[in-house]
Amino acid sequence: MMAGYPLLTILVFLPLTGVLCLLPLWQRQEWTRRIALLFGLADLTLAGWLTLAAGSARLLPGNSPPGFFLFEDLPWIGRLGARYTLGLDGISLLMVLLTAFVTLVGMVVSWNAIRERSALHYALLLVMESGIMGVFLALDLFLFYLFWEVMLIPMFFLIGIWGHGRRVYSAIKFFLYTLAGSLLMLLAIIGIYLLHGSQTGQYTFGLMSLTGTAIPAQAGIWLFAAFLLAFAIKFPLFPLHTWLPDAHTDAPTAGSVILAGLLLKTGAYGLIRFGYPLFPDAAKTLTPLLTGVAVIGILYASWVAFAQTDMKRLVAYSSVGHMGFVALGIAAWTPVALSGAVMQMVNHGVTTAALFALVGMLDERSGTREVAAYGGLWGKVPLLSGLFLLFAMASAGLPGLNNFVGEFLILTGTFRVQPLAAVLAFLGIVLPLAYTVKLLQEVLFQHERRPLALPDLSLREGTILTVMALIDLYLGLHPKPLLDLLNVPVALLTGLTGGAP
Amino acid sequence: MTIADLWILMPLLLLAGGSLLILLLGAIVPGRHTTTVGAVVTIGAALWALQSPPALLAPNLGLAATPFARFFTIFFALTTAAVLVLAERYNSRHGIAGEEFQATMLFAAFGMVTLSASVNLLTLFLGLEALTFAFYILVAIDLNRSTSAEAGLKYLLLGAVAAAFIAFGIALIYTGSGSLAIDTAMQAAAGDNLLVRAGWEIMLIGLAFKASLVPAHLWTPDVYQGAPTPVTAFLAAASKGAAVVALLLLLTRLDTADFLRIPLGGLALLSMVVGNLAALRQENVKRLLAYSSVGQMGYVALALLAGKSGGYEASAFYAVAYGAMTITAFGALTVLDEGGSVERVDDLRGMGYKSPFAAGVLALALFSLAGIPPTAGFTGKFLIFAAALRAGEFGLAIAGMLTAAVSVYFYLRVVVSLYLQPRNDSFTVPAATATESTVLALVSSLIVLLGVLPGGMLELAAKILR
Questions:
Q1: Mean pLDDT of A347-363
Q2: Domain limits at B103?
Q3: Any idea which of A37-46, A451-460, B130-139, B170-179 has the lowest mean pLDDT?
């Protein structure tokens, strides 16, 4: 119905247009944040409308591949065979929705926190939104790689300019760590491009064409390993996670929210969209490795999280654990587990973003993130405490809240193919409960340890957190609409590799 | 001399005539107009080369007007124009008065254009030496700084040695093949002619010096640091480009470059490793960029090695991309420099907010040099690694990728200084003039354009190398 408009292009480049609108208002802090918010809202509205339209199957142009609601394909660099190909299926739709929403959250939480160079701050948030949207929509490896790297630069500056503590160190560590993996992936991209070209005479980066490439087993392992490395660093999977706690600790709140809510998802998404479909055989061979590091990551992260005294580090390590679940679901590659993994990406995106926002709000009020500094918040700031309790319990996987749904699906799906891994990972549901309860008990209850003057949530903070809480509840109680969106693409993906027993 | 000869000669006549005109004008009416004249003449030469020629060859002159020659004529002429404009204010601040600077710049451009239009080894040598000769003067032109003179002397001594190598190599090739025409001489190399091959390898040493490939790179950091910043820009953008052009002219005529695989591969590997590792330890921005250029030329050498698999196109593309990146980087440094106080990386602290435009384009150029998309540097590196993999050079491609990952660190360090380490002490940066801003904006938009829509340039690169 809307085939006449390049909706996906608009979705990707609308935030970038916002940056251009910010330029003339460089000096006017008041206006820059409003305009940025406006563009964020506009992109979210478009994403929301696409979700509704996709649900009612109004978007079905004839040329799109199976499972895709929208598809755009234009010639780009003819000599290389790179094309400008964007496609929206159920999985990318959820990710796009998450991106638009979490970016908005990032803007709202930095509303008052960012006073210096705010125009640059919001410009970077918008650039990042464009980059991440592109990653979730690109179906051409060249285009994907371009977006994949573009989203690094704004995050580097966000951590480096508005961060705390060893911000420069953390920013550089984040950039180099992720880039090193990406460069090897670039070699692998060139590798499969040349392989396909020499086999068929048609040089292309298009995902749909490349999936049919016959890859020699040995080469396939190496190429897949390069992809896996790049994605595992982004995930981050044990033992490649060491950049994450540093980046989170030193990032400003908006940076943490987007890092946890969105950037980590790009690794998982890349593995689902590109890694497994391009190298099904190699993926099957290396699945035990992925399962292994996923399980170790889940257990290790929970163990380390227990020992953290800085709330942001604690949430960061809990992220590593949750993303381990996502990796486990991908490694199982059954329809149920894969749906669970994508669900868990959305759940973790919302819940952890909310937790980081809350920790940021506490930090903004009292200037410390040490668990030991707080205590007895329940009586002093009931609204904030209540929401903190809700999101912490959601993160710990309390049934009825969203994270439980994802973890349950992943474990159910995994148990059929990898019973031992599922049993071990089950511990990963129990352990978070331990550190979460400990955290809640120390921060919310007990007696006040330092006399901190803490005002309760402002209208702005309360609104955004309430929306996130409602999403958590909704997804926890009624995940069906989302799962329905995932049915077709997940069936296509798992059918492709024949992984489902 | 026919009309066609004159047509082909015209860009050279313009540049040489312009150079003389500037010298004369300077003697009669000294002042700033010499830069204007220089810019007009170079742009005129570039425009001339845009038209299609009445004939491809001027055999009596040893010159050609092939698409290759015309393309690089335009590239070198425009590079010269950009550097002339960017140097104007720097020169007056540093007391580089007089018209010699502009005249010598035009003479350097004359050398480069001769080189890219040459069809025999002698014209090639003359072009190369004309431009090197001009650089001997340009590097040492800042009389107020002893480092400039020191750099000039270093460049002169090593340059003379390199010239000797190239001349000796050409002599051997001539003895072996009996011809000075590039086409004939190069074909002799295919027939297992040992003299020609030996000549080639000796010539390669001399050309490695021009391109500052390891181990012939030792002059680079000192000369980059000592030379006035605009001259460094010119040295990096145009003189490196000229070395690539010379290598392309010769290599593309070879039927097989297999006998050069080990020397060229060795140069590439050493340059990528040594250049990028040594840059990690530099505190001086210009030294850092000097080592970076050693590393970058290593990638070009890798591309030349994989020539037949698309590497020649990649290196032609990279020569242009690298020109745009270095003009932007050194041009921005020229603008940010206030009386020579920007020396160390630390001196750039806080510049991102004091001088947003110049610092912004500098950061763009650095990200591009680091190979981050969507920039010319990324497209160029992509083409190079694709060519290397296609040619089966897996080891070198992986080494290149790893050194590229390492190189990101030192480029980031400069960006960190620009944006992440604000300083509070008051310092002033003179705002860029309108012409400087225009040139920087044009060149830096080329960086983005070649990153986002490289299609046109790729077609062009393929066309000129056909």
A1: 93
A2: 3-464
A3: A451-460
Number of domains in chain B: 1
Residues of A with Cβ-Cβ distance to B365 under 8 angstroms: none
Mean pLDDT over A161-190 rounds to 91
- Give the residue numbers spanning the domain of A451: 285-501
The shortest CB-CB distance from B455 to any of A77, A146, A153 is to: A77
B30, pLDDT greater than 80: no
| Residue A313, domain member (yes or no) | yes
Range B369-396 average pLDDT: 94
Residue A73 pairs in a beta bridge with: A85
In 3D, which of B211, B193, B218, B196 has the Cα closest to residue B264?
A: B211
Terminal-to-terminal C-alpha distance of chain B? 28
Q: Do A184 and B401 touch (CB under 8 A)?
A: yes
Is A23 an interface residue toward B (CB < 8 Å)?
A: no
CB nearest B462 (choices: A79, A157, A191):
A79
- Cα→Cα distances A193→A149, A236, A285, B305, B463, Å: 19, 27, 22, 21, 23
**Interface A-B: count of C-beta contacts within 8 A:** 76
**B421, A172: Cβ pair inside 8 Å?**
no
The span from the CA of A248 to the CA of A264, in Å, is: 12
Of the residues B351, B385, B410, B418, the best mutation for testing chain A's interface (the one with the most A CB atoms within 10 Å of its CB) is B385
- Cβ–Cβ gap B458/A80 under 8 Å: yes
For residue A55, name the pLDDT band (cuts at 50, 70, 90).
low
| Interchain proximity B389–A79, CB inside 8 Å | no
Q: Which residues of B touch A115 (CB under 8 A)?
A: none
What pLDDT was estimated at residue B4? 87
Return d(Cα B361, Cα B447) in angstroms, integer. 10
CA angle A65, A70, A71 (to 5 degrees): 60
Domain count across chain A: 1
Mean pLDDT of chain A: 89
B368 or B144, greater pLDDT: B368
One-character DSSP codes across B132-196:
HHHHHHHHT--TT-HHHHHHHHHHHHHHHHHHHHHHHHHHHHHHHHS--BHHHHHHHHHTT-HHH
Q: Quote the ipTM score.
A: 0.92
Share of residues in chain A with pLDDT > 90 (%): 59
Q: B109-144 as b/e, with b when 16 or more CB fall inside 10 Å? A: bbbbbbbbbbbbbebbbbbbbbbbbbbbbbbbbbee
On the question of pLDDT at A62 being above 70, the answer is no
In a domain, A374, yes or no: yes
Tell me if the bond preceding B54 is cis, omega within 30° of 0.
no
Length of chain A: 501
In A, minimum Cα distance to B414 occurs at A172
pLDDT in tens, A286-329: 999 999 999 999 999 989 999 899 999 999 999 999 999 999 99
In a domain? residue A416? yes
Whether residue A21 lies inside any domain: the answer is no
Helix or strand or coil: residue B248? Answer: helix
- β-bridge partners, A77: A82
Burial (CB count within 10 angstroms: exposed 0-12, middle 13-18, buried 19+), residue A156 = buried
* CB proximity list for B97: less than 8 A, separation 6 or greater: B91
Kindly state whether A144 is in contact with chain B, defined as any CB-CB distance less than 8 angstroms: no
* Pairwise CA distance, residues A435 & A440, whole Å: 9
* B367/A171 CB distance under 8 A: no
| Residue A225 phi, psi dihedral angles, 5° rounding | -60, -40
Six-digit token string for B312: 């020649």
